[in-house]
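tokens incoming
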């Protein structure tokens, strides 16, 4: 995720303009090391997005015996995900996961390149059962490491369910103001859910960027594991 100095995660509702070129390079490297990249439908509705990695990183993956592209996972709730905003989808590498309460049942026709269209049970709040999704992806698609790129509601669901292991946060050298969202959107999270440890901090050293790249370990407390 990327945030401005005043805690905003978007400009005009779009996150794409937040980080600089160093941030975009870092995100592509992180994608290349994951089994899958996941976003929520709200993120896809807000702007055009490509989840692919460039040819040089795809070549490195292939040299390690991996598919050139990670799986692209899109979580779809109750409203239209606007799949037209998915730029250059990779045939047979896209998985659509649909809330069973969603009114959309023929999304495969909207995204014929999708490898699978999976219907997910809803949790007690009527949202996609993320733990069930993770279990299915690991069991049926061999996914052990997922890079989640938002948005804020999906981030909140992952954290509130104890499903996040690390946070990679770019602190962009921008002050935005206004009523833009933060990287988390939802009710207050219990303080005892995680402990947070700073693993690394780097700067781009680029003018005029000067962004900071922060990596945190999120460790679930013993109480939250019970």
């Amino acid at each position: 995720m990327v945030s401005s100095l005043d805690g905003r995660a978007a400009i005009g509702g779009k996150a794409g303009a937040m980080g600089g070129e160093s941030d975009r390079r870092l995100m592509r490297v992180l994608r290349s090391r994951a089994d899958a990249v996941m976003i929520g439908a709200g993120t896809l509705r807000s702007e055009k997005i490509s989840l692919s990695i460039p040819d040089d990183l795809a070549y490195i993956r292939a040299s390690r015996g991996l598919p050139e592209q990670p799986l692209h996972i899109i979580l779809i709730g109750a409203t239209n995900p606007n799949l037209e905003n998915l730029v250059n989808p990779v045939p047979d590498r896209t998985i659509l996961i649909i809330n069973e309460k969603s009114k959309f049942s023929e999304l495969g026709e909207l995204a014929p390149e999708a490898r699978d269209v999976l219907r997910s049970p809803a949790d007690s709040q009527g949202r996609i059962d993320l733990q069930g999704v993770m279990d299915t992806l690991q069991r049926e698609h061999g996914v052990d490491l997922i890079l989640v790129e938002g948005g804020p509601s999906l981030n909140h669901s992952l954290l509130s369910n104890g499903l996040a292991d690390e946070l990679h946060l770019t602190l962009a050298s921008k002050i935005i103001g206004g009523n833009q969202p933060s990287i988390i959107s939802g009710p207050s999270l219990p303080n005892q859910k995680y402990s947070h440890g700073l693993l690394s901090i780097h700067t781009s050293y680029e003018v005029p960027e000067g962004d900071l790249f922060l990596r945190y370990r999120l460790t679930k407390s013993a109480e939250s594991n019970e």
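note: The radius of gyration is 17 Å.
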